[in-house]
């Protein structure tokens, strides 16, 4: 940072804040973004090392590690990774985690309906985001 703002070392333009400098570098010098205007990491999860710039998103993420979930088969309450291990060790239930990418919400809903019908199960409704890849 120069004394008068955030400075682009390639073309000598100065910006009032870091985000404006990053926008400039992304547009005009994208191959040098991390050298000229690296992303500011304000919050880092001590448990999994994931980084966040936004405190609200960090706090929401941190709850994943610290909020207890109740085992539906007994009274145990634990964080998600420990609860998955609990299912295996105590109840002899293996949890398989799968990752799926869907191009549309319709494609997801079709897959979800098929799984629910084939296995007589229902997915819990959760708040979240849907991102088209």
Automatic annotation (TrEMBL):
Protein name: Zinc finger protein 860-like
Keywords for the protein's UniProt record, in alphabetical order: Metal-binding, Zinc, Zinc-finger
PANTHER family linked: C2H2-TYPE DOMAIN-CONTAINING PROTEIN, PROTEIN CBG17840
Residues in C2H2-type domain copies: 6-33, 43-70
Gene source species: Nicrophorus vespilloides (Boreal carrion beetle)
């Amino acid at each position: 940072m120069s004394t008068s703002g955030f400075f682009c070392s390639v073309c000598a333009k100065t910006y009032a804040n870091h985000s404006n400098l990053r926008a400039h570098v992304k547009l005009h010098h994208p191959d040098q973004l991390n050298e000229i205007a690296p992303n500011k990491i304000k919050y880092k999860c001590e448990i999994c090392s994931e980084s966040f710039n936004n405190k609200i998103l960090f706090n929401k993420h941190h709850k994943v590690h610290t909020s207890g979930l109740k085992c539906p088969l007994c009274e145990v309450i634990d964080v998600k990774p420990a609860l998955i291990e609990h299912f295996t060790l105590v109840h002899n239930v293996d949890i398989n985690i799968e990752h799926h990418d869907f191009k549309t919400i319709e494609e997801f809903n079709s897959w979800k309906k098929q799984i629910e019908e084939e296995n007589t199960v229902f997915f819990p409704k959760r708040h979240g985001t849907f991102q088209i890849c």
